[in-house]
Design brief:
4-stranded antiparallel β-sheet, 0% helix
């Protein structure tokens, strides 16, 4: 059955490119070059929005967990907001340079950034637990395995590294992808790691071999996000080349390509999230948030 993306809504509250989005329950959050943090929520059948903060610098990423919202900015500052009253709890100097990804597990918040470090913080109060030097180049993405026992890290130096909890020990390092890696995902049913590169290639990796098992050209430039969607048997990818693509996990055939999400992104699509299983949320340099329903036509 042909795959379709049907527009549910489009938000245009930001005045600069939107770099990061995250979702929790019926809520979406976005951060942008305009320094605003905007909250969107579903009330009945209508989406509502509010600006809850203005950052000190451009916002690069955000992550919501429980009643907390964490935001990383372009200068390495990490913000903690309490969503119960929309208040700012803390700002800390977390990295030297931009923060590109935030994640969490076991009461710990993880941040990576331009300084090549992985920092681990207490989720409740942002007290530092440890800092781990990973690379002398920027780190771009972190992803968990299905049990959140292993953490994959990729970055500009082109290595896929896998660390195990609770000590964050490095147990796997891939052969280098010369052009650098920019995104990662985990294919749970195949126990396979997937990476996206700056040249637009997607690679598949098993931990029993440092070489890539398979590689194909997916985009014309940097792949900013990969999502394995096992419910629909798809791999979603977004890129600086302005496209959102879906790949059939059975044979990696192109299942869909979208270049115009409302108004085509001026330069790139920057982030992507799956919301309530069947809804995609994307953002890009067109300053907009697109909310899209995943559908299959007869």
């Amino acid at each position: 059955m042909p795959l379709e993306l049907n527009s549910i809504d489009q938000f245009d509250f930001h005045k600069s490119p939107v770099y990061g989005i995250c979702t929790i329950d019926n809520h979406i959050f976005s951060v942008s070059g305009d320094r605003q943090v905007i909250h969107y929520w579903l009330e009945g059948d209508l989406w509502k929005a509010e600006s809850i903060a203005v950052l000190n610098h451009a916002g690069y990423c955000c992550h919501a967990e429980k009643h907390w919202l964490f935001v990383g900015d372009a200068q390495g500052q990490l913000y903690q907001f309490d969503l119960r009253n929309k208040s700012l709890v803390k700002i800390i100097e977390a990295h030297q340079g931009g923060i590109f990804k935030l994640s969490h597990e076991q009461g710990e918040l993880i941040s990576i950034g331009q300084d090549g470090k992985l920092n681990v913080w207490k989720l409740e109060n942002l007290e530092m637990i440890r800092t781990i030097w990973i690379s002398d180049q920027k780190l771009r993405d972190v992803q968990w395995d299905q049990n959140k026992e292993k953490l994959a890290i990729v970055g500009q130096d082109g290595f896929l590294r896998i660390l195990t909890l609770p000590l964050y020990q490095e147990v796997y390092t891939s052969k280098v992808i010369q052009e650098g890696l920019s995104s990662a995902a985990f294919w749970a049913s195949k126990l396979t790691w997937i990476t996206g590169s700056k040249s637009g290639k997607i690679n598949f990796w098993k931990e029993d071999d440092t070489a890539s098992k398979f590689e194909f050209q997916a985009h014309k430039g940097t792949i900013y996000r990969l999502i394995v969607d096992e419910k629909h048997n798809l791999l979603w990818s977004i890129s600086v080349d302005k496209t959102l693509k879906a790949w059939d996990l059975k044979d990696l055939a192109l299942a869909g390509k979208w270049e115009n999400l409302g108004v085509s992104a001026f330069r790139s699509i920057n982030d992507l999230a799956i919301f309530n299983d069947d809804i995609l949320v994307s953002c890009g340099d067109n300053k907009k948030i697109d909310v899209l329903k995943i559908c299959f036509s007869e």
